[in-house]
Amino acid sequence: MLTGEIVIVLFLSLGQSAVYAVVSLIAKLTAGKPLSSQSAVLNASRSPRPYLDLTYQLLEIGFSLVPVALVLYLLMRDQTPVRRELGLTADRKRFDLGWGTLLAACIGIPGLALVYVAQLLGLNAQIVPAALQSVWWAVPVLVLSAVQNAVLEEVIVVGYLMTRLRSMSVQVIWVVAASAVLRGSYHLYQGFGAFVGNAVMGVVFALFFLRFKRVMPLIVAHSILDIAAFVGYTLLPDSWLTWI
C-alpha cells in the first residue's frame, strides 16, 4: 500500500523530474559535442512580455508546492504527527538558522570546487543559475524560487520519503541511499558532477534528519545555497562571472 503511494507521489513530483533529467542528460551526451560545452539553464524566462513572464514564474512556483501539500495531507491522514516527526515548526529559530547556515557553508564551498573540477573534466554542463530578463521583479522571484526548491525537496525527499520508508521497516542504510540517489538523479540534467555533489549532500541531509528529526534547518540551508547561486549570478558583474 505505502509502496504504491510513494511511487505515485514521486512520479507526480521529483521522480518525474528525475526521469526528465535522465532524458536531458542522454540528449546532451548524444548531441555530438562535449558535455562541458553545453549549458543547463535554471530559472529561464517564459515569455518576452515581462508581466506575462512574471505570471508564469509565480504560477510555476505555486503549483510546484502542491506535492508538498499532498504528502503532508497523506501523513496527517495516517495519524503521523507531522510537526514532531518532520520538525516543521517555527519554535526553534536559533537552532534552525544556526544549523542551516553551517550546513550551507559546509556544503556550498566544497560544492563549488566539485562543480569546477567536473567542468574541467568534461563531466558537467555549464550551469546558468538564472536567465530572467532585467526586470524589477527578477530578484524577488529568484528568492521565491529558491525557497520553493528548498521546501519541495526537503519535505518530500527527506521528510516524507524517509518517514515512509522507515515505517516500512527499511534498513537505515537503504533509507539514506534512496533519499540521496533520488536527490542526485533529478540533477542529472546538469551532468555527472551535479549528480555526485547532490547525492553527497543528500547523505549529509539524511543523516542530519535521522539525528534531529527536523527538516527546517535543511530548508534554511537549501534556501541559502540556491539564493546565493540564483541572485548572485544575476547581480554579479559579467567580468566576475567570467572569472568564477
UniProtKB/TrEMBL annotation:
Assigned keywords, A-Z: Hydrolase, Membrane, Protease, Transmembrane, Transmembrane helix
Occurrences of domain CAAX prenyl protease 2/Lysostaphin resistance protein A-like (ranges): 136-227
Residue intervals passing through the bilayer: 56-76, 97-117, 137-161, 192-210, 217-236
Pfam families noted in UniProt: Rce1-like (PF02517)
GO biological process, one term: CAAX-box protein maturation
InterPro entries: Rce1/LyrA-like_dom
GO MF term (any one): endopeptidase activity
Name of the protein in its database record: CAAX amino protease
Upper taxonomic lineage: Bacteria, Bacillati, Actinomycetota, Actinomycetes, Micromonosporales
